[in-house]
């Protein structure tokens, strides 16, 4: 249920077809064409998404950013999960 709620929030930032649930607790968002609508940098938009999930659901999230899904997953696993 929480995964569905989080993905609904993600749909506010990109189209439904650009949100790919990866596992029960991870999703991949392709924001190639939408991030500029929400901020001045990819990092700024990622932080906005984190704040939105925190505000609406009370959950903390981590984000991996990359030019493709593999790079984003590596950034998440190797950096984001180990950094404040």
From TrEMBL:
Entries under Pfam families matching the protein: IMS
Source domain of life: Bacteria
Family from the record: Belongs to the DNA polymerase type-Y family.
Species of origin: Pediococcus pentosaceus
InterPro entries recorded: DNA/RNA_pol_sf, DNA_polymerase-Y, Rev_trsase/Diguanyl_cyclase, UmuC
A GO CC annotation given for this chain: cytosol
Official protein name in the record: Excinuclease ABC subunit A
Domain UmuC: 1-84
GO MF assignments: DNA-directed DNA polymerase activity
Matches recorded under PROSITE patterns: UMUC
GO biological process: DNA repair; error-prone translesion synthesis; SOS response
Keywords for the protein's UniProt record, in alphabetical order: DNA-directed DNA polymerase, Mutator protein, Nucleotidyltransferase, Transferase
